[in-house]
Amino acid sequence: MTDAHAPAGPSTQATDGIHRVRVLLYSDDITTRDAVRAAAGRRPARDVEVVSWHECATAEAVIEAMDAGGVDVAVLDGEAAPTGGLGLCRQLKNEIFRCPPVLVLTGRPQDAWLAGWSLADDAVPHPLDPIAVAEALARLARERVSVG
């Protein structure tokens, strides 16, 4: 993994005020990936549009995609196996210059401290609340645009 990585260009906010983002989604469980995509939809908020989803089922695929750039927000499943999203988040945050914002999915609300340890930008616990997922994704997308 490169340590001087710049994304392939930040998400855009067109003149219409819509933040268009590319989302990387990691979980070894396809039902979790489906639940996240369904919760967020194409428009997690009025001013945020997901233009593409890049789904990964392995940590190696996540690292490869992040190295390639073009990711505006990453969603990592902390319950994924054999590599959990929390440890993977910490690795990405430590190794990627200007790492995109990361939303981690924790096993339960009491695991919020693990999300802090992982350096995640936000966390949503299982079972996934669609409103919480959409709001967190939209908030991180807006932050990415303002930093970009």
TrEMBL record:
PROSITE patterns: RESPONSE_REGULATORY. The keyword rRNA-binding does not apply. The keyword Cell membrane does not apply. InterPro entries: CheY-like_superfamily, Sig_transdc_resp-reg_receiver. Transmembrane segments: none annotated. Keywords: Phosphoprotein. Residues 22-141 form the Response regulatory domain. The modification 4-aspartylphosphate is found at residue 77. This is Response regulator transcription factor. It comes from Phycicoccus sonneratiae.
